[in-house]
Structures are given as structure tokens and as C-alpha cells.
Amino acid sequence: MRILVVGANGQIGKHLVSFIEDSDSLEAKAMIRNAEQASFFEDLGAETAVVDLEQDIETIAAAADGIDAIVFTAGSGPNTGKDKTIMVDLDGAVKTIEAAKAAGVKRFIMVSSFDTRRKAIQEAPSSFAPYVAAKHYADEWLRGTDLDYTIIHPGLLTNDEGTGLIEAGSEVEMGEIPREDVANVIVASLENDTTIGKEFQVVGGTKRIKEAIDSM
Fold first, then answer.
1. Among 27, 49, 87, 128, which is 20 to 30 Å from 81 by CA?
2. Annotated domain spans of the chain
């Protein structure tokens, strides 16, 4: 299975491409914003595509040519303004969903925010609310398609070494989770078709990742 990783140069994305390239059944194509980022992925043996999410749907669709699944793990980052949140986390996500449809890619995994329900927007701090709102509408757009989607809602992300142990469910108590573990959750979801049409929150826990995903 060939996987287009959108947002590959992010911290989750780098772990994900590495894990995919270590897999016997998966192959990664890293979508990156500029060519200077390519060497990291080429050293892993991954193909790259230089595409900015602010480009058009057709350009993103071209990067998805011959791809079996798309993982959207891009984000504008904590230090950008509301404009970039709209252009990347909302419009970039929607354009990638539309590009998947245009390219005939059915499988789509969205890495979202921990809680993107309307109540979460209203309760979020003013600095964080635009991000939650962007994710809310991107998730809604994906749910409204006929794509074979999975939406992953990770808890508070850390750069700690992954433990391989998580708690996952439709609603779990907020907690931390290493980015490395989120990447492994994505791989497990790609390898398990029972996650299609589902979404779940995930934090650090006591179940092995494969076991937790298999029981979804």
C-alpha cells in the first residue's frame, strides 16, 4: 500500500514516514513544502513530492497519483496567526480531501484535534479556538464524503519516547501521548480496515497499540 503523508515534515509526519518505510507492506510518499526538506525522507528510502497546501486541488491530486491512502497530519503550528490556521488546517485539509476524490484515493486518515465538537470550540481559550474550529469543519467535510475515512483525535502531544501503550475510544479522559505513539496508531489504523468510518480519541494508556486498534 502506497501512502501519501501530507505534512510529512512535521514531528508526527517524520515518525510516520520512518515507520512506514520500516514496514513490509507499506510504502511512503512524503509531501513536503520545499525541496530543502527532501533529504531526510530520501535517506529513509521514501519518495517525495514538493507541494504547498496553499496550492490548488489539482496540484495536490497530482501528488496523490498512484497512491492507495492519504494521511493528513499537517498543521499550521502554534506560532502562526488565524490566517494560516484557516489556510492550512481548514482549507488545506478540505483541498486534500477533494484531491483524494479527484485522484481516486478512497482511504483517508485525518489527524485531528482531541475534541472538535461544537462545545469544544466554545470552551477553548481564545487563542486556541480558531484551531479547534478549523479542525471541526475539516472533520465535518470528511464525514460528508464517501471516502473510507478514519479520524484520529490525539491528546496533548509530547516529544517523549513512545511507550507503545495507549487508551483509545470514542471518548476518553484527556491526557498526554507521545507523537511517536500517534504515528504508530496511524500505521495500525492503515493496516486495520475495521477503523474505516470510525473516529476515536487516543492518549497514553495500558493497552498495546495493535490490541487497542483491533478492538475499535
1. 49
2. 2-155
Topology given in CATH for the domain delimited by 2-155: Rossmann fold (3.40.50)
pLDDT score for 78 = 54
**If we measure between CA atoms, which residue out of 90, 111, 132 comes closest to residue 5?**
111
In the prediction, which pLDDT does 177 show? 98
CA-based nearest residue to 31, from 58, 60, 56: 60
Quote the Cα angle for 194-199-203, to 5°: 105
> CA–CA separation, 145 vs 15, rounded Å?
28
H/E segment holding residue 149: strand 148-154
* Per-block mean pLDDT, blocks of 10 residues, the chain (216 long): 97 98 96 96 97 97 98 80 87 98 98 96 92 96 98 98 98 98 98 97 98 94
Catalytic residue status for 131 = yes
Q: 11: how many CB neighbours lie within 10 A of its CB?
A: 17
Q: What is the pLDDT of residue 79?
A: 62
Which among 41, 72, 108, 131 is annotated as catalytic? 131
With 0-12 / 13-18 / 19 or more C-beta atoms within 10 angstroms meaning exposed / middle / buried, residue 202 is buried
pTM attached to this predicted model: 0.96
Residue 202: φ, ψ to 5°: -145, 135
